[in-house]
User: Fold Phosphoribosyltransferase from Streptomyces sindenensis.
Amino acid sequence: MSERATRREENVDVVWSGDWVAERLGVGLEGDGELRELLGLALRRNPKRAHLLVSNVLGKHVPQKPSVVYGAGYGLGERVRELLGAEEARRAVVLGYAETATGLGHAVADGLRDAPYLHSTRRPVAGVRQAGGFEEAHSHATSHLLLPEDPALLAPGADASTLVLVDDEFSTGNTVLNTIRALHETHPRDRYVIVALVDMRSPADRDRLTVFAAEIGARVDLVTRSTGTVTLPDGVLERGQALVAAQEAEAAGEAEAAQDAEAAAEAEVAGEAEVGSASAPAPAPVTRVDLAWPAGVPDGGRHGFTPAHRAALEAALPDMAERIADALGDGARQGRVLVLGFEELMYAPLRLGTALEEALGAGADIRYSTTTRSPVLAVDDPGYAIRTRLVFPAHDTPADGPGDRYAYNVAGAGFDAVVAVVDSTADTPELHAPEGLLARLAAHSGQVVLAVVPSYTPTPAQEPAVLPEPLRGPHFSSYAPEDVGWLLQDLSDTELEAPTEEREEAIQSGGAHYAESLPVEYQPSAEYQALFSAALETSAARIARAVGTVTETVLAERGPRPVLVSLARAGTPVGVLMRRWARHRHGLDLPHYAISIVRGRGIDATALRWLAAHHDPADVVFVDGWTGKGAITRELAAAITEFETSGGPAGFDPEIAVLADPGGCVRTYGTREDFLIPSACLNSTVSGLISRTVLRADLVGPDDFHGGKFYRELAESDVSGRFLDTVAARFDEVAGQVEAEAKELLAADRAPTWEGWAAVERISEEYGIHDVNLVKPGVGETTRVLLRRVPWKILAKRGAGTDLEHIRLLAQQRGVPVEEVDDLPYSCVGLIHPRYTRGATGADGKAVKGA
Assistant:
């Protein structure tokens, strides 16, 4: 054992591991006699809460004997069993919280003996339907998913079984009570039991539990091991952040000095090695052990863990422990060994640890802890709970993207060997990389053993066997494959185009829906192409500002890693630009997909199911180019409600983020000015050569994506990349303005005014149209009228300048009058011919003969 480790063992009963924080920030911890033995204090690197209560018996941040960790949870479970009685305990369901309490909750379920177990998760699993979710406001990673293999697990039976909710600490109670409230609305029960290692509520929060139980009409019990309170002085958050910053700056300086010394030493060794006199020390070996994990037993409670699973695991544990012991060798029987779990994978390594304690006997010092997503300051002081920190990259392809992960109190703890336990999803090249977890462990231990538990992925019973996969360029669209995944099916070889006049007559007569066919793609004249080029050059900075502003707003309110889902196809160039802004300014690689929504028919339900199977629906942000009168805004909200009502996964937020919101229809936007967005000037040739979307019963089945076409033949006219590159080139130029505008918007009242809808209703009546669907407000919508529909007339705001040059040119080419008007909330409005038949136009199909 190292000298430092020996010193720490000697100090464990002398210095409380919360003294350092208490002395510097005035944080107080008061409670029963056991509380300070259970908890220490550390500082979070988290803007929401300054302090962290560090448990000495949880096995997350502080290595502890596995039997002590398991016994803490099991003992709480026995108390719940005593509270409920044997029969009710058998019918209870236990729910643990990710990531910290997944192992604790499982041990509590074991203490109840016959109760099934489920824990929340932050890892979406492809093909598994979400049964619920909730937010943990103060956490580093806030979103929790509930993904039971059996959806009935959380639904009470006729006897209204008790739900037991387990977390490591019960502080404000917000997370647990919000969970109960959400589940009670869909599956009400008569009784809930909350279980935690420590009850740290304030007196005010203690009263809330009684009020809450009365509010929902159920009994709510609380079972904890210890009770206390945390007192926080005023300004503790700001002072804590300043203290963290100061400590990290000091540590960075020390690290730089150490690196310089290490580099000098390496150079000296390298010089000696050239003449054969020395060589660099070899890292500790990494040995992979085959656990022979029992078939059919889940790796944990992410999808549910039944009493039958428990019995199978118990029977297999002794053999698996012997396999690990053999891999460690005889020296482990007198050594210090750490069994290190992985984030939510806490129970499997914990039980392997308890079995290893028995296999190796009293001579071995077995400890258990796990890696974590949570960033915490490390201070090498006996009065601080987090003495050391290992940092390594995520190695399980997490849904929120790459980032750092941590192992605390491992470095310098004198471990002779580390048994790293991960699931197969996390057994990736990143785990084995030179900077990965295994290499970090090898630098601080004499031996590393890797044990991989097979990841359990159930097959959902109510989903189609195979959902279609997104289409990507260059096989579908001219966009780069990383720019966007199209949740569409390829109908490029299907004849769908119809002459504009025939389509208009069929649509207005009710003979066909506009999404059942496609207009013939408009081929711009040389004069019109020149107008597009000029508009792009003059408006690029303005668009870049709007892109930056809406992206910063989304990151601030829907972060840390939103999933962009653009409404094809007008929203798709905007989604690509938002993705580029996030990558350019913040280094974020945001997922981006394009989805079809059809007015009057709703959103693509298969695409929503695909998104829910691959991402947390709460992370999805719908993106569009602009608002007109707000029809799609309303359509999306109604479609999401219908989707959830029909049994689709819940959690999608129907709010749309748009580049421009002249109609005042949304609260997330880059600007509310009605100006020319060059991507509205053209059709497919500025949208990756993709058509508008198609929904026709003979082409799109219930489990198919909506359709679209890739116009490869128009490649020579494609300006999609040019549009993106021209705007993105102005990002740095507008960064300062974006920062100020986004800050102002985030503090402003951005409630929709629906000003545009009111104007459209007025215009519809004034011009005798009596159909708001034939009134298309704004530059973008007016352009669409001229390119795709049969226009009647154009209303232009008096004095509108260069933003309408392309409108005037298109109107001239199609023989459509442009009427200058006052008091228009938009730059222009396009009116579709309200009583259209082919007899209403001239021989060229353009000139309107009469009103």
In short: Residues 236-274 form the longest helix (39 residues).
